[in-house]
Each structure stands twice: as structure tokens, then as C-alpha cells.
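Note to self: keep these together.
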Amino acid sequence: MVRGDVKDQQIKADLQLASFWRDSSENGFLPYAYYTGEAAKLENSEKSLTFAAQLFLNNLRSQENPALRSWMASQSRDLFERAEVLNPGNDSTKIGLGATYIFGASGEPTDVMKGIQKILEVARRDSLNMYAQLMLGLGGIESGQYDKAIQRLIKVVHFDPANIEAVLSLGEAYERTGDIATAKIWYAKATKLTSNPELIEAINERIKSLK
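Structure:
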């Protein structure tokens, strides 16, 4: 165990390194998240652990390198598990932990289902938890259960019409079912929910590529 001043000094050093990498370049995200996580483990507060875990989780789906994606998932999972020990009743932590299994790129369908089951524990108890519904919708896309994914995502968009992640994911789900006309409608809706010109351009390119 690291004790007293030594622990505080290590936390400070990790946070300084995290800050350096955060501000350094586009390639600084992974070391930024890593050192943020290392500081959170030493600090061992629910707030710092879930913040660091969410950093990794929020960038999992966009990570195309399978090895890095798996590593990010394991980092996120470890942090969420530590937070869950501190507060076993936090539903957001349970959902986040489940999501690390869904998006961890292990290639194991059992991992995806394990993650979905963990999130379903929350959704069955609280059907209005839209974070759970969103993650289940995204999990449905990952596992190829597109009809279930669409049902979940429609529920999220009905509750929160401005949720661009749910709207874009509906476009993806319909595209994967072969319903290109409906996919285009949802992608077009997504362009109205952002002012980011690069994202709008990317969505429009996606729409043009659909035949």
C-alpha cells in the first residue's frame, strides 16, 4: 500500500501527467485517460473512479484497433468495479460496467451477453432509465439483434429527441437491417442535432453512400 504523503505526491504526479497529455496533441487521449485512472485508483473515491472509467468507455466504440479497444475496456472495467465496491447501489456504475463487456472487442458473444444481462438488471427495475435503454440499444447492434436495438433506441429518442447518439444509432440499426430509406431519415435527423461541420459532413457522406 502507498501511504500518506507518498500517495498524495503520486496522485499529484499522475494528475500532472494527465494534464500534460490532455493538452499535448490529438494523440494524447490514451495516456491522459491512463494517468487519470491511475490517480483515481490511488484517490479511491467513487467520483474520480467513475470519471476515469467513463473516459475510457466513451471512446471505446470509436477505437478501431482491437488490441487497444480491449485494453481500454479492461481499464474501464477495473475502474467501474472499484467504484461499485464503494457504492454497490449506483445504477450508472452497473450500466457502465456492463457496457465495458459489450464494447470490449473480445470477440466473445458471451461477453456481450454478460454485459447486456448486467444492464438488464437495471432496466427491468427502472424502465425509465434512458442510459440503460441506450446501452441496451447499442448492445443490440453489437450482438446483431437489430429489432431489439431499434425498440430500445426508439424509446430513448421518444424520451429525449435531441439524443444524437441514439438517433445516429437508429440510422445504423436500420441500415444493417437493409431498410436504407428509414436509415437515411434517421441520419438526416442527426444532422439537425449538431453544429459540428465535420460530423455533419461525415453523416451526409454516409447518406450518399447508401444505395
